[in-house]
Amino acid sequence: MSITPKGLYLTEGRLVQALSNKIASLRILLDHSNNSDELNQLMKGLYPSEIAYLIQHLEEEQRRKCVLGLKSEFNAEILLFLSPSLRKEVVNLFDISELSQILINLESDDVLNILRDLEAIHYQKALNYFPVEKSRFFLERLRHPQHTACALMRSEVLVFPDYWKVCQALEHIRSCHTPRFYDVFVVDHERRFLGSIELSAFVKCQEDELLSEVMTRSTHVIPIDWGQDEITFMFRLYELISAPVVDKDSRIVGVITVDDVMRVIEDKVAEDFMHLGGIHASDFYETVSKTSVGRLNWLLITVIDAILTSLVIQYFERVLHFKQGLIILMPIAAAMGGNSGIQAATVAIRALATRELNALNSARFLWKEVSVSCFNGALLGGGLGVLAFLWFKDIRVGLVLGGAVLFNMLWAGIAGTLFPMIIARLSGDPALSSGPLLTTTTDVFGYGLFLGLSYFIFKF
Amino acid sequence: MSITPKGLYLTEGRLVQALSNKIASLRILLDHSNNSDELNQLMKGLYPSEIAYLIQHLEEEQRRKCVLGLKSEFNAEILLFLSPSLRKEVVNLFDISELSQILINLESDDVLNILRDLEAIHYQKALNYFPVEKSRFFLERLRHPQHTACALMRSEVLVFPDYWKVCQALEHIRSCHTPRFYDVFVVDHERRFLGSIELSAFVKCQEDELLSEVMTRSTHVIPIDWGQDEITFMFRLYELISAPVVDKDSRIVGVITVDDVMRVIEDKVAEDFMHLGGIHASDFYETVSKTSVGRLNWLLITVIDAILTSLVIQYFERVLHFKQGLIILMPIAAAMGGNSGIQAATVAIRALATRELNALNSARFLWKEVSVSCFNGALLGGGLGVLAFLWFKDIRVGLVLGGAVLFNMLWAGIAGTLFPMIIARLSGDPALSSGPLLTTTTDVFGYGLFLGLSYFIFKF
User: Fold this and answer.
1) What number is the ipTM of this complex?
2) Architecture of domain B288-459
3) Residues of A with CB below 8 A from B365's CB?
4) Which residue windows are transmembrane per the record (chains A, B) (predicted)?
């Protein structure tokens, strides 16, 4: 029976509870002792991902002690499961030669992931400790942009010539040490991709059949220059578990597996989520100072928004002399527009990300959002207008409020749909658009409409 | 060579472009002809997921024609790739007996997915067309809640007794027709789970080895009553491709595979995204009326928010007589608080979803967010205060604005962190909290603080 880590789940029942208990004992140990034997004992048999989870839950000083205590037995795979900012922190606890030594056992795509985090001078140094051939290979790969097939793929890939028999392929698989794989890829004499066989179909084949007879002429190959959006779209559409990456001559140069794609999909939608909330990337593990500075940019746009709003109010100041009722109702149109705009933008951003919204249906989508805004704007604007009339016993106040809410919600529906589409067309990130841009326009429009309408209705 | 659909990608190059071209020709065909042969010709060789993508891009009337035209050759797998609201629409185009007939070829978990969408009377009727045993099985499964292991798993699972040799297992695999699988599960004589063998390790085994010798005593089993959060957490932590589902006696009753988990993970984070934007679920494919009504609830909370704000302003109306400068600056504190609160809430919601934020680090996270709010509040409150002083040449105006911004941002930081955590503790969805609740409190606090401070500073 192969020896594997026992993992926490088996030993202690429910997973999250088990992790929590482990964190508690780890914290106590780190705070009260410097004994690295005890630490290694505590971590013994745990999976790298479990250790990473534990490390993420420590204070900075505890984390330092923990990593240094584990150092001699530190498994590089732990790094892969850490959040980016913590990974940098932990990597910096090693010197370059130590780092290269622990990296050398990882698969090529994982080494690249970690090297990418280092600064150029450091990864150059780290590469010096690798065998010449490997270090040249990594340097070459590091030149490619991060979010392409080339960066996602693993280079270790098994391929078999189409004239081989199943038994020959089996023999070859048994003879070599490969990471886990899910499909058998068949190539011609120039390593050009011909087809694939799902592993569970492969084991059903008779030993003397030719690979060319049992393979599926699959069409799911990934050109090396594809971006991650195209790759995730393809994995999702065809429910792939692995797919070969080919160069421009159709030769197989690597393989992308579902676990990497899963991480990309999750990162992407989490990123959109952060952007919608006005955050560049999750700063959960960042320090107070970095977090504060990182959040300032959106808040500065809010400052500009607020100043613009104030200027609008100042411009209409003479209207304000008219009636106190107007001052009391002033913020309503802006609030209604802001929130209904965010609703439209949220749907648009998500539909753009999943490629459901595209050139073919954008006009229809815009039209629908305008209709929705008209409907909700008329309903809520009408309701609020009546309320304002009853409150201040003045039909003009009701007209001003109702009109401002209706027109601002209409604008919000249009802008909430158009902004993400335009930004996507300009190759920007649509999720970044909705928050700041949209709120600023709905605020300025909201106050402007309300006060402008007041001016006209009360003046004449 | 096995015969498979050719798929669009091979025939026409780039995937999305190919799909777009196909949609264009499909639309023309449906608008100008009723010939179902031409339609079947156009769809020939396409994957179900591709056809689903095409169907999603049609207008309602085109969609009806398309589905009815395909009817005789309609592949039930197409249904699995449609968004929930469209799936209902398409299912309703079939009568119950037709539907049962096309469903019968699907795997059990997929049939259940579709049956769940039907209303109780309809799925009862549909089950009448299945063989008695199957229909009883489905009825039993449909009783379980939707988001548990039981609903996610597939019941068709290969298991092997531990005393079998590798060659016996191979023979059995070859003899039976199974859906794709990734791991070989080994059980004792009572079907209790003992261990598993990754398929790529299994093919390396010698034929006469015992399964009990080559298996890994894996700990990654899923109790049947686990919820989807625990399941996705486990798949992510251990990078699983498939895992056995066991009943309370540790007997294997099914298997969950990575493609289902991937869909759950994506749906969950997309759902959080929608909630943050004030939408219950993506209404991209819904009609105008359903969309409008669906979005009203959050907008109604905004109405309450706006009325509360107006009441606050009315309460402080006597302050408003003092100085026009105050009226002009009134909305700023509310806007700053609202946006910084959403930032804190966004990070908290996401960290709760990935289980990074939990009882162990919530106090530290709250403390950090308070520090961040203090820092940014002091910086931006100070800056805006100075600006207001320069604008209105009155130190009191500056003090009022600066103080209101600082304190409201401080409140926003606390509320943005606490609200999601409290709602999660109460087993609610934290993503639903942030928008409406948070904005209402930061608006009311923002105006209240600004006007209250004005009252005190100008009065005395």
Assistant:
1) 0.80
2) Orthogonal Bundle (1.10)
3) 284
4) 296-316, 328-350, 370-392, 399-423, 435-458
